[in-house]
Amino acid sequence: MTLRLTFLVLCFLSATSLIKAEDPYLYFTWNVSYGTISPLGVPQQGILINNEFPGPNINSTTNNNIVINVFNNLDEPLLFTWNGIQHRKNSWQDGMPGTNCPIQPGKNFTYHFQVKDQIGSYFYFPTTGFHRAVGGFGGLRVNSRLLIPVPFADPEDDYQVLIGDWYKSSHADLKKMLDGGKSINRPDGILINGKSGNGTDKDKPLFTMKPGKTYRYRICNVGIKTSLNFRIQGHSMKLVEMDGSHVVQNVYDALDIHVGQCLSVLVTADQTPKDYYMVASSRFLKEVFTATGVISYEGGSGPPSPQIPEGPTGIVYSLNQFRSFRWNLTASAARPNPQGSYHYGGINITRTIKIVNSATTVDGKLRYAINGVSHTDPETPPKLAEYYMAPTKVFEYNSIVDDPTPESATKIVVKPNVLNATFRDFIEVIFVNNEKSIQTWHLDGYSFFAVAIEAGQWTPEKRKNYNLLDAVSRHTIQVYPGCWAAIMLTFDNAGMWNLRSTLWERHYLGQQLYFSVSSPARSLRDEYNVPDNAELCGVVKDMPKPPPYTI
């Protein structure tokens, strides 16, 4: 009897400890619909989440499980991606057309992912068609756990700032323009949290600060084409985090933020108590577009000065600013150990992949490409085709080579672009931009070390200029005209991961590819099975499910 009682107690304690050990869950229900919005003073159709534009912010903590039930009330298929969230072992939740069948109109789908071993500032947006151009985006923050030291004092408050370019045309008209072989050209304006600063509520504060207090501003460029510069009238900004990494805390008067990038700054309310403008303005365009938003001091009086601080000009300013960014080697990130305990500079490179972007016409229509291949999404997501052991029915691997010839930029083929990658290889990627406009690239599923950006052509001798000590670990990098950029990373996250231009017309017209990072073990230690609730489409819709991965 005593032994049996002891056994039951031990079982109870074991079960209790298992329950307590599971990380917390956050549940959300999203109703996605069309609605009329007027961010530039002209009524237009936007995409709302729970009747909100921009969408609701997700406030989470490291290792939280996030469960979002998405109801698609649009008249078109829909997917969401979580820009910068790595989805360890779980590309099934990435929300790209290469990994997921879309949510059909009138249907719903539940995303379930964990923000495993991450901290920082991110955002989400719709990936289907050209939906991103008219809304459906919002902030996603991952706070540090209480037991992990953060390299700055707790701010008085934590604010989300979503900046981006904006078009007055509907997403359908923009898509029709691209399908017809034309570019969407320049934007019509800039928004800060869905407002241009020129409407009837232009003097209504976006944020309030108490005199003498310090605030954290998380700023993300959620636009579709334009690099932006951000600054706050009369205030300096201390940079503390970028794309999920703590950085050396330099102080700036203005910061360039490229499409898809997020960063955090600390701002102290140390000026005369009144109102001030925050400003977002376009970069690298002949015509400068500007948006403003009001920050109000609590108890202060007086409108913002009409003297808007001027933004920087030219590429050199932006390039030098990139070179000033440094990884904070002594700060902890999601885990207690310092970020700098990972010595990426001492790892041997096993593969070098050169990514060359290009623009040309195919059958008289504009297309963008990587190494001569302009990606098109097949009906069956390549990840599903791969899992169901039927990739040859949908796509072929390795349509591009790692070191393309100059001729490949002029001979474009339109087809799915899927590149095999060896699990746990440490690789170097060189982005080459021979065009006259800036490029910005994002890689799902990973962070990488942005070790260099330089003008001219890359050669192996350029490696001597790499920052092999404290380059920032991030997920998005810009490449200036006539320049190259180098990144380094380990392919240690099995799955199908999208490498894309964040400039959405280029992405839509083919400037993207998928890395297939497969574990030969087909083990749950490396990758999760397809979720039970996954939508099936294309050639796998009626196929029997293959044997699941096991331990």
UniProtKB/TrEMBL annotation:
One Pfam family named in its UniProt record: Cu-oxidase
Lineage: Eukaryota, Viridiplantae, Streptophyta, Embryophyta, Tracheophyta
PANTHER family cross-referenced by the UniProt entry: MULTI-COPPER OXIDASE (PTHR11709), OS01G0816700 PROTEIN (PTHR11709:SF27)
Record family assignment: Belongs to the multicopper oxidase family.
Annotated TM spans: none
Name the UniProt record assigns to this protein: L-ascorbate oxidase homolog
Ranges where the Plastocyanin-like domain occurs: 32-145, 158-299, 386-518
Domain of life: Eukaryota
Signal peptide: 1-21
